[in-house]
UniProtKB/TrEMBL annotation:
Keyword annotations from UniProtKB, A to Z: Membrane, Transmembrane, Transmembrane helix
Region ranges (Disordered): 67-101, 146-170
PANTHER family: CHROMOSOME 1, WHOLE GENOME SHOTGUN SEQUENCE, HEPARINASE II_III-LIKE PROTEIN
Name the UniProt record assigns to this protein: Heparinase II/III family protein
Transmembrane segments: 40-61
UniProt-listed SUPFAM superfamilies: Chondroitin AC/alginate lyase (SSF48230)
Sequence ranges of Low complexity compositional bias: 67-78
Compositionally skewed regions (Gly residues) per UniProt: 79-101
Length: 805
C-alpha cells in the first residue's frame, strides 16, 4: 500500500490500455498515438451525419427506434492476435470498429487526453446530446428484437427477502444467468458494451500470460500487507471468469484454478503466507479482497468446477476468510487488533464487509457449517450502519476523493450481489439519504486534469474503479451518473457489463450546474468551472472543514485549493506520504506523529501558515458560497455568459493558533477567465501564503508578478494590494519542511517532491493583512488589456456582484 499518486494510477492503467495488439504488452508507441481513437471520431462523424439524414427523412431522431437502428457499417473490425487461452492464439481485441449503437453516433468521447479524461468533439445536436434520460420502453424488444437493456429478472424474492435465502440459479453474484443470456446480442448493438468486451478479453489474455501472482508483502503483514496481491488476484479472476462464460472455453477455467490453488496457499512451489492465515487478517482489507476473488470464481464458474474443486474453494473461503470475519465480530481482543473497521465508516468497512458478504453469499446452501449465514447476520447490518454512512450529508466521501473509489467499489459490489442473490439491498442504498449524492461528489471533485486530490491518495487501484457510478445511475434513476462514467478510461471491466443500462441517452453535461457547494462541516468545499466538456478551461476547488472524521487520511489543510487552467494543473497537491512511516496513521489529534510529515503539515498545502505552525486539529470553520448559477447546455461548445461567476469563502479563525480573525476567499473573475484568492487576516504571528506548483517560476515587477509556465502554457500571478511597509514580494521556496519544524520520528524522512516549487509570500510579523493574489492565465484569445484588476472587497462582504466593477 505504498503511496501512489493518481497519475501513477493513470500510468498503471495506461499500461493496460495500450496493450500491443500482438505481444499483449504495454506499447508506449500506441499510447502516444491512439490511432484507433481518431478512427472513432471519423466513425462518429459519419454516423452523426447518417443520423441527421435519418432524422430529416423520418423524424425519428432521439426515439428508441433511432437509437436501436445501429449501423453495421463500422462493426466488426476486431483482429485476432496474441497468444492466449485458445490453444495459443487467444482473442485480443482490435480496439476499434464496433456498432454505432445508442444515438448511432458511436461513443461520445473520441479519445482520452494525457490525463485520461474524455475528449469530446464539437456536438450541437440537441436530440442526441440533450437531457440525460433512460428511455422508458427500452427493456422491451424493439423492431430488430434486441432490447438495449436487460429484461426484468425472471426470479423474484417474494414478500420478505432474506440475506440467507438465495435465487435458485447460478451465478448469484452481480451477474445472473438471464443477463449473460442477453449480453451477446446487446454487445453487438451497443458501442460501449462492444468496446468494453474487447478490452476485457484483451486484459484476460494479458493476465493469462502473466505468472502466478507472487506473495509480495509490503512493509510487513500488518503494514500494507498483501493488499496489492489480493486485488491483482481479484482482477485476474474476474476477467477470466468473464472470458469463460462468454466463450465456454475451459482453458480460462484451468488458468483460474492454477491461480486460486496458489492464492489458497496450496502450491508447494510458492510461499503464500502464514498457514491458516494466508489472506492476512493482520491487514484485514486483504482478507476482504481475497474472499471476494474466491467468491466470484466459485459462483461465476459454479457449473464448470469439478465437485472436488468447488469444495476446495469453499473451504478456502471458510477457513481463510469467513472464520476470521466471525472472529472480527465476536472476539473482542481480535476486534481491537484487527477488526476495528467494523465500527467506523469509510473504505475499510466497505471492503471488509463487502468481501465477506460475497464469500458468504457464494457458498450459502453448500456450506455445511452455517458460518455463511452467520456472517451475513453481521456484515449486512454493520455495512448499513457504517459503510453506507461514509458520505456526509452533502455526498462528500468522509475520507478523500481517491478513497471514494475503494469505498464505492466495495459498496456497489456488496449491494449489487445482495440484490441479485437475495432480492434486496437491505437498506445499503437508502439508509443514508445522501448516499446518492456521493456520485455527484465524484463528478464535481473531478477537475480538468485530475481530481481535487486532497489528503491521502491511497494504494494501487487494480480491481478498483469508478464503475459504481453505472450501478448508482440505475439504482438512483439518475442517468447523468451512467453517462458520465461510460466515457471514462476505467469503464471497461466485467461489472460494467451488468451494471450499465444501455437505454441511457443524452449528454451528461446538458443541464448540469457548473458549480456546486458541499456544505457539510466535515469538509466544506466548492467546485467551480467554466465548462464540463472543454478541459482546457478553468477549474477551481477549495476546501475548509474539520480535520477530524477522515479516518486519518486527511491533512491539516483548511483553505487548500487546486487550480486548472488551459489543460494544466497550476496549483496542485502532493498526495500521500509513506504509509509505512512511523506514526503516519497514529491519530487525528494535534500531537499526532502524522502531522510531522511535510505532505500532511499545513506548510505542505496550498494554504496560509501562521507562526510557522500547523493548523489546529480541532478546527471548526464556517463557509459561504455564491454562484450566478449557470448550467451547461447540450452543446460541447458552451461558453458562459458575461458576468458569470462563483465564489467560495471560509472563516478559518478557528483553524489557526495566534489568529484573531481570518477569512479566505476564492472568486472567478472576468467571466471565469481569471481567479482571485484573497486572505483577510489579523494575526499575532508571522503569515506565509503558500502554493505548490509543478510550473517553472520567474518574476517581474520587482517580484510582485510571478510568471508560471507549465506544459507550454503560461499563467501570470500578481500580488495586489501590497501592504505598505511590508515590502512583501513573491519568493520561490523548496517544497520541504521548515528548519524550525519539530523533528521527524527517528529514522524517518519526508518524500522528496521533485519538480515542485512553492510560490510564497511572507509577512515576518503579525499584523492585519489583506493579501490578494490574482491569477491571469494567458488564454490564446485574450490580450493584456482584456484582463481586469479586481477591487479590494473584504472577503466577508463578497457577493456574486461584488467584483463586477
Ligand atoms: C483493462 O484495461 C483497461 C483499458 O484497456 C484498463 O483501463 C483497465 O484498468 C483494465 N481493467 C482491469 C479491470 O484491470
Ligand atoms: C467479446 O470480445 C471477444 C474478443 O474480441 C470476441 O471474441 C467476442 O466475440 C466478443 N463478444 C461479443 C458478444 O461480441
Ligand atoms: C515472483 O517470485 C519469483 C520467485 O521468488 C521471482 O523470481 C520473481 O521475480 C517474482 N516476480 C515478481 C513480479 O515479483
Ligand atoms: C487448500 O488446502 C486446504 C487444506 O488442505 C483445503 O482445505 C482447501 O480447500 C484448499 N483450497 C484450494 C483452493 O485448493
Ligand atoms: C481472540 O483473539 C486473540 C487475538 O487474535 C487470540 O489471541 C485469542 O486466542 C482469541 N480468543 C479466542 C477465544 O478465540
Ligand atoms: C441472526 O441474528 C438474529 C438476531 O440477532 C438471530 O436471531 C439469528 O439466530 C441469527 N442467525 C444466524 C444464522 O446466526
Ligand atoms: C439522486 O440524486 C439525483 C441528483 O441529485 C436526483 O436527481 C435523483 O432524483 C436522486 N434519486 C433518488 C432516488 O433519490
Ligand atoms: C467538527 O468538529 C467538531 C469538534 O471537533 C464537532 O463537534 C463537529 O460535530 C464536527 N462536525 C462534523 C460535521 O463532523
Ligand atoms: C487543449 O489545448 C491543447 C493545446 O494546449 C490542444 O492540443 C488540445 O487539442 C486542446 N483540447 C481541446 C479539447 O480543445
Ligand atoms: C506535479 O505533477 C505530478 C504528475 O503529474 C502530479 O501528480 C502532482 O500532483 C503535481 N504536483 C503539483 C504540486 O501540482
Ligand atoms: C503562538 O505564537 C507564539 C509566538 O509566535 C508561539 O510561541 C506559539 O507557539 C504559538 N502558539 C501556537 C499554538 O502555535
Ligand atoms: C527577486 O527574486 C530574485 C530571485 O528569486 C532575487 O534574486 C531578487 O533579489 C528579488 N528581488 C526583489 C526586489 O525582491
Amino acid at each position: 500500500m505504498r503511496p501512489l499518486s493518481d497519475i501513477r494510477y493513470a500510468q498503471a492503467a495506461k499500461s493496460e490500455t495500450y496493450l500491443n495488439q500482438s505481444s499483449g504488452f504495454y506499447d508506449p508507441q500506441a499510447a502516444r498515438k491512439p490511432a484507433s481513437k481518431r478512427k472513432w471520431w471519423i466513425i462518429g462523424a459519419i454516423l452523426l451525419l447518417l443520423v441527421i439524414a435519418a432524422a430529416v427523412v423520418g423524424g425519428i431522431l432521439g426515439s428508441n427506434a433511432a437509437k436501436k437502428n445501429a449501423s453495421s457499417a463500422s462493426s466488426g473490425s476486431s483482429s485476432a492476435g496474441g497468444s492466449g487461452a485458445n490453444g495459443g492464439s487467444g482473442p485480443i481485441s482490435g480496439g476499434q470498429g464496433g456498432p454505432g449503437g445508442a444515438g448511432d453516433v458511436g461513443r461520445f468521447a473520441i479519445a482520452t487526453d494525457t490525463y485520461f479524461l474524455p475528449i469530446y468533439p464539437t456536438e450541437t445536436n440537441q436530440a442526441v446530446y440533450g437531457s440525460p434520460t433512460f428511455i422508458a420502453d427500452a427493456s422491451t424488444a424493439s423492431s430488430d428484437g434486441v432490447p438495449s437493456t436487460f429484461p426484468a429478472d425472471p426470479w423474484s424474492p417474494g414478500a420478505n427477502p432474506d440475506p440467507t435465502v438465495t435465487r435458485p440459479d447460478r451465478p448469484r453474484l452481480i451477474a445472473p444467468s438471464y443477463k449473460w443470456a442477453a449480453l451477446p446480442a446487446m454487445i453487438a448493438e451497443d458501442p460501449y458494451l462492444w468496446g468494453w468486451n474487447e478490452t476485457i478479453f484483451g486484459n484476460a489474455t494479458f493476465y493469462y500470460n502473466e505468472p502466478l501472482t507472487n506473495y509480495s508483502i509490503d512493509g510487513g503483514y500488518s503494514g500494507s500487507g498483501v493488499l496489492d496481491v489480493a486485488r491483482q488476484v481479484k482482477v485476474k479472476v474476474k476477467s477470466w471468469a468473464y472470458a469463460y462464460r462468454m466463450t465456454n472455453d475451459s482453458t480460462w477455467v484451468d488458468r483460474t484454478w492454477r491461480e486460486l490453488v496458489n492464492a489458497a496457499g496450496n502450491n508447494t512451489d510458492n510461499f503464500f503466507g502464514e498457514e491458516g492465515n494466508n489472506w492476512n487478517y493482520y491487514h484485514f482489507l486483504d482478507v476482504g479482497e481475497f474472499t471476494a476473488a474466491f467468491a466470484i470464481a466459485y459462483d461465476w464458474l459454479y457449473d464448470v468446477w469439478q465437485p472436488s474443486q468447488r469444495e476446495a474453494l469453499m473451504w478456502s473461503i471458510i477457513d481463510l476468510g469467513l472464520t476470521w470475519g466471525i472472529e472480527a465480530y465476536t472476539n473482542q481482543t481480535f476486534t481491537n487488533d484487527y477488526g476495528w473497521w467494523n465500527a467506523v465508516n469509510g473504505n475499510w468497512n466497505c471492503v471488509c464487509n463487502g468481501g465477506l458478504t460475497l464469500g458468504a453469499l457464494a457458498i450459502l446452501g453448500d456450506d455445511p457449517t452455517g458460518i455463511a449465514a452467520q456472517m451475513l447476520n453481521y456484515t449486512v447490518p454493520d455495512a448499513k450502519a457504517n459503510c453506507a454512512m461514509a458520505p456526509s450529508t452533502d455526498g462528500t466521501w468522509s475520507e478523500t476523493a481517491n478513497y471514494w473509489y475503494f469505498g464505492t467499489t466495495a459498496h456497489a459490489e456488496m449491494t449489487s450481489s445482495l440484490i441479485t442473490a437475495t432480492g434486496s439491498d437491505y437498506g445499503l442504498l437508502t439508509a443514508n439519504p445522501s448516499f446518492n449524492d456521493t456520485a455527484l461528489f465524484h463528478i464535481y471533485v473531478t477537475g480538468m486534469t485530475s481530481l481535487f486530490n486532497y489528503g491521502d491518495h491511497g494504494p494501487n487501484k487494480y480491481s478498483t474503479t469508478a464503475n459504481g457510478m453505472l450501478f448508482y445511475g440505475t439504482q438512483y434513476d439518475t442517468p447523468v451518473y451512467t453517462l458520465f462514467q461510460r466515457d471514462r478510461f476505467d469503464a471497461a471491466e466485467p461489472w460494467s457489463m451488468f451494471w450499465y443500462d444501455g437505454s441511457v441517452a443524452g449528454g451528461w453535461w446538458d443541464g448540469l450546474p457548473l458549480d456546486h457547494y458541499f456544505d457539510n462541516g466535515l469538509d466544506q468545499w466548492a467546485s467551480m468551472r467554466s465548462s464540463w466538456t472543454d478541459n482546457n478551461g478553468t477549474y477551481v476547488a477549495m476546501k475548509s472543514g474539520n480535520h477530524t472524521g477522515h479516518q486519518t487520511h486527511g491533512d491539516l489543510d483548511g483553505g487548500d485549493f487546486v487550480l486548472d487552467f488551459m489543460g494544466q494543473r497550476f496549483a496542485g497537491e502532493l498526495g500521500s506520504g509513506d504509509y509505512l512511516s512511523t506514526g503516519y496513521f497514529s491519530s487525528e489529534g494535534q500531537d499526532s506523529q502524522r502531522w510531522l510529515y511535510y505532505r500532511k503539515r499545513t506548510e505542505g498545502q496550498n494554504a496560509v501558515v501562521v507562526g510557522l505552525q500547523n493548523q489546529n486539529a480541532d478546527a471548526q470553520p464556517t463557509a459561504n458560497f455564491g454562484t450566478t448559477g449557470e448550467s451547461q447546455d447540450y452543446t460541447t461548445t458552451y461558453t458562459t455568459p458575461a458576468g458569470s461567476t462563483a465564489f467560495f469563502t471560509t472563516d478559518l479563525t478557528s483553524t489557526y493558533f495566534n489568529v484573531t480573525s481570518y477569512q479566505r476567499g476564492v472568486v472567478l473573475l472576468n467571466n471565469r477567465r481569471q481567479v482571485l484568492i484573497q486572505d483577510d487576516i489579523v494575526s499575532t504571528a508571522s503569515v506565509q501564503w503558500r502554493m505548490h506548483t509543478n510550473a517553472t517560476i520567474t518574476y517581474q515587477d520587482g517580484n510582485t508578478t510571478a510568471i508560471l509556465t507549465l506544459g507550454g502554457q503560461t499563467c501570470e500571478v500578481k500580488l495586489l494590494n501590497i501592504p505598505t511597509g511590508t515590502g512583501a514580494t513573491f519568493q520561490t521556496l523548496e517544497a520541504a519542511r521548515y528548519p524550525s519544524d519539530p523533528p521527524l520520528p527517528p529514522g524517518q524522512v519526508d518524500q522528496p517532491n521533485p519538480g515542485v516549487s512553492v510560490l510564497s509570500v511572507t509577512f515576518a510579523d503579525g499584523g492585519s493583512y489583506s493579501i490578494q493574489v490574482l491569477f491571469n492565465p494567458q488564454w490564446d484569445d485574450m490580450s493584456a488589456s482584456d484582463f481586469v484588476t479586481p477591487p479590494n472587497v473584504p472577503v466577508s462582504q463578497w457577493t456574486v456582484t461584488s467584483h463586477n466593477s
